[in-house]
Structure formats: structure tokens, C-alpha cells
């Protein structure tokens, strides 16, 4: 079954000809880029949008991946944080981000005479709340992994077979996803979230989220590690780091990390 999807994907890419891949450095777009490069060689261009909402580690992974396969990699600054619609963080915030990304891709596509813009959307994404899909329609973005029927399981399996670095790495969506709807976003706030998550990574919480609630940071870690995060000495370290980043309160979600979860039962570590 997987091989049939792979064959279908390669035919889609071959028929599409010279194209550009919107490349985030995540597993989905990494797989797409690698297969596209295998099929098209130097007729593919990877484009990554540089923004305060993109974790520094994700950018480093994207750069490393492109260098490893000698892929032409364009890094272009995006300006979604100049858009008041994005800053106010409505429930369709992702539309404004993707609209900016695809606008940049379209400009490059036209200048370079490329045929299509591809992104790493997969089948699972179609059943989730994804306002960015509306921006895809606006710019006629193609999703080859969807066209070939790839699910998340397929992506992980093929990525492992192809030895794609980080194939089992936890998903790392943009930092703006840490902000509940209606809480405004700024470069300074994004930086605080990123630094707090990097600190949690250093403590061994590899899959975690720091949710930004104005003066409060709500922390989600793997369910099996919640007891570790709430026990000494780590909870004191977490508390102090939160204080140094300007949060008046730090809380731990006792239900642990769940993808896309922003409202849940909280345990207050301590008010500062």
C-alpha cells in the first residue's frame, strides 16, 4: 500500500515539473522535499519563511536538511507580524500567516518560471481546524502528499525508511500556536515562549508547550512526566525561569500535553 502511494507521489511530482516547496523543516515537508529532489533534481527550490514565530531550532533543522542534499534553499523574511489581523490572534490567525507565506512563494514562482507551489499538508490535516487551507485555495497551492493519499503514519514510515533526520521528532508548530485566541502576539512574547520551551527541553521535557496567558504561563509536558515537572527540584527551577521571563504565575496541566489543547484542568505551582 505504501509503495503504491510512493509511486503515485513520484508521478505527481514528475508530471508537475520544476516547482517550489514551502519548507518548514518539519517531518512532512522534509519528506516531500526529499522525494521532490529525488524526482526533479535541481529543478526544485525550497523556500522557508523566516519569522519570529518560527522556532530557531526549526530554522536550523531546515537549513541543515537543505545543505545535506545540496538543495537550493531560499530563506525569505515574512511580515505577518506587521499585519494587525495576525497580531490580534483571531481563530483564523493561520490564514494570515499562510497568506503571507504563499504570497512570497508565488512571487518567487513567477520570477523563476516554476510551475507549481507545493506544501507538506497530509490527509490528517484535512480533518483538523486549518484556516491556512483557505490560503492554499487563494494561491492554487498543491499538496502532493494529500494527492497521493499520505497519512501521518505513512509519512513516519517512509521517513524512517529514507533515514530522514528527525523522522521521529515531536511536531513543532509555529510559536504563535501557544497563544489562545484573542491574546495578542508580538515578537517579544514569542521570544519569551521560545526561551521557556528551550529551558524545558534542557530539563528533559522534549515534547512540551508553554501556553501564553498574558501574565501566566501554562506548561504542558508529556503525561508520564507531569509528576517530574511538579516535584522538587525541577518545579523550583521551572518557577524561577518563568519569573525571569516576566511571568507572574506558572501553572502545570496535570492532564499532560495534548496536541492543540488550550483549555484544560490546571494545577497552580505557585504565584510569584
List the helices and strands and how they pair.
Blueprint lengths: L1 H15 L2 E4 L4 H14 L3 E7 L5 H13 L3 E6 L6 H4 L5 H20 L3 E3 L13 H7 L5 H4 L4 H10 L25 H16 L5 E6 L2 E6 L4 H4 L4 H11 L4 E5 L12 E6 L1
Helix pairs in contact: 1-2, 5-6
Entry summary:
This protein is of the alpha/beta class. It folds into 2 domains: 2-161, HUPs (Rossmann fold), CATH 3.40.50; 186-271, Alpha-Beta Plaits. 43% of the residues lie in helices and 16% in strands.
Content-based structural category: alpha/beta
Radius of gyration (CA) equals 19 Å
Count of extended strands: 8
Helix fraction by DSSP (H/I, runs of at least 4): 40-55%
Share of β-strand residues? 15-25%
Q: Can you tell me the CATH superfamily of the largest domain?
A: HUPs
In CATH, the topology of the largest domain is named Rossmann fold
- Return residue spans where pLDDT drops below 50 for at least 5 consecutive residues: 263-272
What is the H/E order? HEHEHEHHEHHHHEEHHEE
CATH architecture of the largest domain: 3-Layer(aba) Sandwich
Mean pLDDT: 93
Query: What is the distance, rounded to the nearest whole angstrom, between the alpha carbons of the first and last residues?
Result: 55 Å
Structural domains: how many: 2
In the sheet with the most strands, the strands line up as 3-2-1-4
The global form is globular
Q: What descriptive keywords fit this protein?
A:
272 residues; Rossmann fold; Alpha-Beta Plaits; four-stranded parallel beta sheet
Amino acid at each position: 500500500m505504501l509503495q503504491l502511494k510512493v509511486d503515485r507521489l513520484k508521478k505527481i511530482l514528475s508530471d508537475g515539473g520544476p516547482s517550489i516547496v514551502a519548507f518548514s523543516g518539519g517531518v512532512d515537508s522534509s519528506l516531500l522535499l526529499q522525494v521532490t529532489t529525488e524526482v526533479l533534481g535541481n529543478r526544485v527550490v525550497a523556500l522557508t519563511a523566516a519569522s519570529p514565530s518560527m522556532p530557531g531550532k526549526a530554522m536550523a533543522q531546515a537549513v541543515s536538511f537543505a545543505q545535506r542534499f545540496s538543495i537550493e534553499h531560499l530563506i525569505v523574511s515574512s511580515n505577518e507580524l506587521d499585519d494587525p489581523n495576525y497580531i490580534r490572534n483571531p481563530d483564523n490567525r493561520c490564514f494570515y500567516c499562510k497568506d503571507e507565506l504563499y504570497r512570497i512563494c508565488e512571487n518567487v514562482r513567477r520570477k523563476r518560471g516554476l510551475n507549481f507551489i507545493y506544501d507538506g499538508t497530509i490527509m490528517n490535516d484535512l480533518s483538523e481546524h486549518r484556516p491556512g487551507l483557505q490560503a492554499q485555495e487563494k494561491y492554487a497551492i498543491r499538496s502532493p502528499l494529500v494527492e497521493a493519499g499520505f497519512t501521518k503514519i505513512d509519512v513516519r514510515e517512509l521517513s524512517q525508511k529514507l533515514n530522514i533526520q528527525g523522522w521521529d521528532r515531536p511536531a513543532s508548530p509555529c510559536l504563535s500556536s501557544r497563544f489562545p485566541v484573542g491574546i495578542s502576539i508580538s515578537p517579544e512574547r514569542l521570544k519569551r515562549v521560545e526561551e521557556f520551551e528551550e529551558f524545558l527541553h534542557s530539563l528533559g521535557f522534549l515534547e512540551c508547550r508553554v501556553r501564553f496567558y498574558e501574565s501566566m504561563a501554562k506548561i504542558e509536558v508529556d503525561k508520564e512526566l507531569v509528576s517530574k515537572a511538579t516535584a522538587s527540584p525541577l518545579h523550583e527551577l521551572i518557577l524561577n525561569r518563568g519569573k525571569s521571563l516576566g511571568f507572574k504565575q506558572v501553572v502545570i496541566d496535570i492532564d499532560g500535553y495534548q496536541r492543540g489543547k488550550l483549555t484544560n484542568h490546571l494545577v497552580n505551582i505557585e504565584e510569584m
